[in-house]
Amino acid sequence: MIIALTKGRILEETLPLFERAGIVPNENLKKSRKLLFETNINNVQFMLLRGSDVATYVEFGSADMGVVGKDLILEHGSEGFYEPLDLRIAQCRLMTAVPSDRKVVSGRVTIATKYINIAKEHFANQGKQIELIKLNGALELAPALGLADAIVDIVDTGKTLTANGLEPQNLIADISSRVIVNKASMKIKHEMVSKIIGLLNKAVKNGKSDIGM
Ligand code: AMP
User: Residues lining ligand 1, CB < 6 A?
Assistant: First the structure.
């Protein structure tokens, strides 16, 4: 059983949750350069991936399960796997943002984002014609540099936007990390998959009651 975890900020919240569920890696994930780790549970391994690769690994069955942000699930498309559990961690919002001093743009709007599919669908639903520019980083700079009129990005505290002269405009989706499961693994390894989902579900609920919710 291979569980693909998203590296980076999501991992910081994922590991304590798995620990509460009783699943811990046998070595320190952050100190090692390895990508595959044994855990305290026989036959359960953690794999560390970039978020944008987790859905692909799970869809094609190289990983049985995964933890990934809903933003990347929406961008990837969710037909290739099941999404049985909301872990309620790494919560943030996917939003459009515009320069504070240039909120209204007439004519065809140019949007910079790494979420090309999400942006396409969002603006199509609104009946708006847009140009899309795919960027993988530093897209908060795109409006100031004249590359785009607005951006579509993740907003948590909003500090990154403010620091770059932008402000949030429209909410596209509320985001949190989800457990996804390969469709074949759900059948073939059903007992193990449902056991892990049950343990994680309990850990999510206990976590909430810890902070009085
Ligand atoms: P903030 O300045 O707190 O609004 O954080 C915004 C930046 O942090 C965004 O540009 C994202 O790249 C990143 N970020 C914040 N929360 C998340 C999350 N849950 N998942 C992925 N990226 C995030």
Answer: 9, 69, 90, 92, 153-160
